[in-house]
Amino acid sequence: MSRSMHFGVFLLGTGNHTAGWRYPGADKTFLDIKVLQRVAAIAERGLFDFLFLGDGLSANLRGHPSYTCRLEPLTLLSALSMTTSHVGLAATMSTTYSDPYTVARIFGSLDHISGGRAAWNAVTSAAADSGGNFGRTHPDHEKRYEIAEEFISVVRGLWDCWDDDAIIADLKTGQFFDRSKVTALNHEGRHFSVKGPINMGRSPQGQPLVLQAGGSERGQNLAARTADVVFSVVQDFEEAKVAYAGLKDRIRRFGRNPDHVTILPGVMPIVGRTDAQARETLNTLQSTVDSKEGLVMLSSRMGADISKYPLDGPIPDVAVPDTSHAFARTLLAKAKRENMSLRDLYNLTAAARGHWVLCGSVQTIADTFEQWFLEGAADGFNIMPPYYPGAFDDFVDLVVPELQRRGLYRKAYTGTTLRDHLGLPHPAVGEYPAMIRQAEAVAP
Asked: Where are the alpha helices (DSSP H) in 340-428?
């Protein structure tokens, strides 16, 4: 095939299911490097494009329990780079509570350390309680995206301050680098003033990749202008097709090649030898959900206190919040489409925090993935195992071989960098900043 399905794996606590840690044989800690090394090894065995570490900047004691205590992502990924050789290493860092120069250095360093496998998931930090840990007032949605647009542009510019061949280390002349190939950034913007150049040679990938997951209109525009990989929240095939086509068209209108942006819906696969066995696993997981945690998660996604409404009643009429636009919009659409009760929506959110749950046999899951991939709803998937390591092992050992048999998925890594895995070219110096400037010029 001319296209191959792409996979990321979402490393979220000891599993993406809120009660995954309670499943027999599941990991019980997200703080043990050996546990995380094992997950990384499974991903590499499954020929995954990348590991993805989400992050937050506050301790939510009423949220996903095994994710409350976690290691700082870049420290962790640097360690994992030493025990892996191919799988990409992606992590979240906030544009609201960081600064561009530091972000550019950190991800540039990871790219050098890993031999070209780094990716930055640029987020604006939706959780309002993050501000209290930085002595700041949390900006509103529009302000956060205004900051993010300039932030990403500055980081991209810093990554391009050094040409690929600027470091020459000529023993005869004693010249270590060619100063004509090192350029100061001299950025003066509304939110940032950054002189540059960065104190680091250009990274192995030219630039680390940028990941995005914005669901609002502003978020979609930011992704279309700046991202290499876009995560999406889905619940329905037809809706996903429309959203996929819409984002690809938006990318094209901003002057970019839509084939150079990979769209990965998030999905929690519950894999069984049969559909019935998979349902039994899901029922076991659901039976251990703490009802208070489930309600807190649903309230967070909906942007309203759901606990005051009867669970067996209709979905309350709530406005789309200033935080999780994509989740609220997708969940409300599914509830309306399927005439769901609030309890139905609660069960769905308690399972995968509002993401798509795909429960079935190897055949069922492979059939579904094939349809979405071939009929224009996805370029692959961000896999969200309900618990580690068993559920991830099942996916890699059962589903991956079936997709390979169908010619939908690679049988070996054909390169060493994350850009190689995703089929992205090595960018020329100035290519991304120029692309962003062009996109900004035509932005609505």
From this structure: 342-352, 362-374, 390-394, 400-405, 418-422
Residue found by looking up tokens 């690929």 in the block: 164
Residue 61 — very low, low, confident or very high, per pLDDT cuts 50/70/90?
Answer: low
Strand 209-212 and strand 118-123: pairing? parallel
Cα separation, 352 vs 356, whole angstroms: 7
Alpha-carbon span 224 to 206, nearest angstrom: 20
2-60 tens-digit pLDDT: 789 999 999 988 888 888 889 999 999 888 999 999 999 999 999 999 999 988 777 77
SS3 content of the chain, % helix, strand, coil (to 5): 45, 15, 40
pLDDT in tens, 402-442: 999 999 999 999 999 999 999 999 999 988 888 777 777 77
Contacts of 32 (CB under 8 A, 6+ apart): none
β-partners of residue 206 are 203
Q: Please give the Cα distance from 92 to 78 (Å, whole number).
A: 14
Measured between alpha carbons, how far is 224 from 252 in angstroms, rounded to an integer?
8
pTM, full prediction: 0.89
What φ, ψ does residue 385 adopt, rounded to 5°? -55, 140
Domains of the chain, start order: 6-270+357-441 (3.20.20.30)
Q: State how beta strands 193-194 and 209-212 pair.
A: unpaired
The Cα 162–Cα 183 span in angstroms is 7
* H or E stretch covering 272: strand 262-272
Q: DSSP letter at 314?
A: P
Cis omega (within 30 of 0) for bond into 197: yes
- β-strands 193-194, 187-188: how paired? antiparallel
Give the span between the Cα atoms of 163 and 427, in whole angstroms.
11
**DSSP bridge partners of 90:** 52, 119
Q: How far apart are CA 206 and CA 160, in angstroms?
A: 8
Predicted confidence (pLDDT) per residue in 73-130, tens digit: 999 999 999 999 999 999 999 999 999 999 999 999 999 999 999 999 999 987 777 8
